[in-house]
Amino acid sequence: MGKIRIGTSGWHYPQWRGDFYPRGLQQRLELQFLSRRFDTVEVNGSFYGLRKPTDYTSWSARTPDDFVFAVKGHREVTHHKRLRDVGDDLREFYDSGVLDLGPKLGPVLWQLPPTLPWLPERLAAFLDQLPPVRHALEIRHPTWDNPELVEMLTEHGVALCAAESAGRFPEPVEPTADFAYVRLHGDRELYKSAYSDEALDKWASRVREWAKSRDVYVYFDNTMDNAAPHDALALAQRLS
Length: 240
Description:
The chain is an alpha/beta fold and 240 residues long.
């Protein structure tokens, strides 16, 4: 059996204060609070700008020993350069402190832009440059949802992210690595809608099946109306 980890995409959300976070909890203590209720979180700020090594070491020091951080890859690689000639950018990203997480580093997520069509040669060059840690790829252009992608990711041991996006983007579920990576952006409204009991039961069944043969990481990204942490707790209860 694989290990199932369930958490949220990020933890700094003002609208969570007084709801998921107790009223009056200091902002600097929010990660500690979240890490005592979940065993993983996805770092989203690393997508928008490189963090400092001190950020990663501070996060590591404030969380339990068995806590794991997934880290979202920098948009310079995926959205600005669109995977082209990104060797220096990859090195800069990993040198920013990502690898300093050590055993607390989970998968690194690379989310592609919805405007980038299928480019197999460019993808192959990108995959060949990735360091030997776990990686997941989230696709958003429909042309990427094809058997050749599954074959390439399987060859490199990179997980094809199972992302639910209210039908806006492709929602593949093919296993391509020794772990599964799930991002739940909302099944009815992107980033916003809460999951019903029926929807959570569906995902619990799917995660339970995947966990028979691989680790599974699940992150709720329906963060706008406070649903993410509550849905994450509800799914974890179903799988406990």
